[in-house]
Structure formats: C-alpha cells, structure tokens
Amino acid sequence: xxxxxxxxxxxxxxxxxxxxxxxxxxxxxxxxxxxxxxxxxxxxxxxxxxxxxxxxxxxxxxxxxxxxxxxxxxxxxxxxxxxxxxxxxxxxxxxxxxxxxxxxxxxxxxxxxxxxxxxxxxxxxxxxxxxxxxxxxxxxxxxxxxxxxxxxxxxxxxxxxxxxxxxxxxxxxxxxxxxxxxxxxxxxxxxxxxxxxxxxxx
Amino acid sequence: xxxxxxxxxxxxxxxxxxxxxxxxxxxxxxxxxxxxxxxxxxxxxxxxxxxxxxxxxxxxxxxxxxxxxxxxxxxxxxxxxxxxxxxxxxxxxxxxxxxxxxxxxxxxxxxxxxxxxxxxxxxxxxxxxxxxxxxxxxxxxxxxxxxxxxxxxxxxxxxxxxxxxxxxxxxxxxxxxxxxxxxxxxxxxxxxxxxxxxxxxxxxx
Lengths: 202, 205
Fold this sequence. Notes:
The complex is a heterodimer.
Chain A: H1 9-17, H2 21-43, H3 46-61, H4 74-91, H5 115-119, H6 124-135, H7 139-150, H8 155-162, H9 166-187
Helix pairs in contact in A: 1-2, 2-3, 2-4, 3-4, 4-8, 6-9, 7-9, 8-9
Chain B: H1 3-8, H2 10-13, H3 22-26, H4 28-51, H5 58-84, H6 87-110, H7 119-126, E1 139-140, E2 154-161, H8 164-167, E3 180-187, E4 193-198
Antiparallel strand pairs in B: 1-4, 2-3, 3-4
C-alpha cells in the first residue's frame, strides 16, 4: 500500500503563492486554531484574537511577511507575526491581562509549594485556577507557557517566534512554571488553622 | 551532574521519562521539585486539551477567502504575463532605460544646480517626450514607438537609478540622483521598452 505524503506548510505556501486557493485554505485550517488560541491567551480578548488571526494570514497572502525557510519553520514564523501583532495591541493599551511587572530579574518564587495545590489540578476548579494563573503571568512568561506547554510548539519554533535564543526559551519556561506554582499556592483558601486567633469577649 | 546543571535541562525533563535520571536518585530535593513540575505539566496538558476545540470563528475564513480571491484577481494577470516574458525582454528594457538615464544624467549634472528645481527645467525636459503620461500613469519613452490600442504589451517591475526619471522629463534633485527607485516598464510586442511609470515614495503607482 502506498503511503500518502502529508503536505508540509512550506509545500502549501509554494502552491498558495501560485494562486492555489485550496492550498491557502488547507494552510489556514491547519494553523488558524493554534494561532487564535495563542492570540486569545496573549490578549484576553476574543475580538482581538480574531483580528490578529486574520491579520497574520493577510500578511502571508500579501507576501508581507518575508518568510525565509532557512531561518525556521512557517509555523514558528506565523506565531512570531501573531506575537508582534499582540504586542502592538498591548502597546496601544487596549489589552493586557497581566498586571504584574515584566521585569526579567524580578524575585522568583521557590518551587516549594503545598502538594495539595497540585492535587487540585486533577479537578475542574484546579484547572480553572491554573487558567487564571496563566492569564496573570507577566507577558514574557505567559507567551512561552502558551507556546511550549499549551500549544506544544518545539523550542526551536518558539525561539523563532519569540525572537530569542533557545536557551532563553528554556530559562523563561523554568521561571514561568515556578511563577505558576506560586500563583496556584496563593489562590488556595487558607486552612482554618491559619486564621488569626481573636480574643473571645464572653 | 550537580543541581544547577540538572535544572539547566529541566524543561525537557519535566515532560516525563526522567525518573531514572542519576541526579534525582541522589538528590531528594530535586526529585520532589521535578515531581511538582511534572504535575503542573499534566495540569497544563489538561488545560490545553480543554481548549483544543477553541478556534477562530468561521467569518475569519470567509473574510480571508474573499481577500485571497481579490488579491489573486488583481495580481493574477500581471503575474502570468510577467512569467511568460523571455528574460532578455526585461533585461533589454532595463538596459534601454538605464542607458537613456546615463545619457541624460551627465547633461543634467552640467547644468547649474538651481535649474533642477525650476519649472522651466521640467518643461524643457518634458519636451523630450512626445506625450504626457497616459491614464495609467505610464510616460512614453523618448523616441520609442507608440503603443497601439490593440498591441499586446507586457509590464515588468524593476528598480532603476532615480536618474532614469530624468529621461522622461521628471525632476530629480541632484543629491538623490544615485538613489534607486521602483518602476514599471511597459514592453511592446517586440520586447522593446515603450513607457515607464515610477512608484512614489510610498511605493504606489
């Protein structure tokens, strides 16, 4: 039985540039969801994510992106465009779900957290808390978690998208995970024993 | 391997399969930390799985499809025509325009600098050409055969020295003569250049 070769993004791009509508649609359908989710996580707004997804493919269509296959995959490149568009939106002050400092050298939390926090991650409430924690991460940590942990983009593509070396992707991911654990720990309701004792008036 | 070296590689390890790592067997602290990382990674995978169905609304695809068709409709004929052109045609066209520019430019340089900016100089140079620009903005080249209404013409886009603008009577400041400018050259059925139009500063024609 003859194996059917799956067309790569680069094959589809070549056909797209020749005016092949089916190739354009195939590429869009293959990549749009991940780009939309990335934009949604970065902006916190469905309307902005929709605009960004559309703009990414319009840039590709108009040949404005200057994609060079020798520098990385098309997927990484498209995430890079989406990221730039999201950053532009943030600079305009329209959206930014993270309110904390983006300082790279901010004090980092220890990884020592209550194990119950992690046990919660098997429940719906735990996942909701995790979702909030991801949204509250400073931008540079949020983008690396969304790319590498949620969209499973490999480090090389993530480095291309974030315009930084692979080593930086690794270190940011490490810090991002530490921050997530810290945030999850903070979100947990304090045990009764931890309440401040008060004097009884009776 | 010490703790620092181990954590340097941590992100890859957190995905699983690292339990047998020699460092973890001798360092309970790192073993505990990696376990927490693994559980966090598992939570993130669950979150990713739950978000898996989230995608751009169908109207984005519809908008893009419309944009694709419109882009292809406007670029298509030109692309096809350009592809069919023999290489020598556009090389000949570029050579013709550059040669004319080279012929005119030295004359312009010998004129007093102020003359470059005066309307009189523009009128004088404009008289080198037979006609003004047509509706498409194409300016006929001096001494080139006219393009007939039924002639099959081709348009090629190229970069030219700005001095080529002098050929068709356009004013160019002396300090910008050596810059390059994007232009479209119209070739007749015989492959010879007939007219040219230059992009403005924003790159539009």
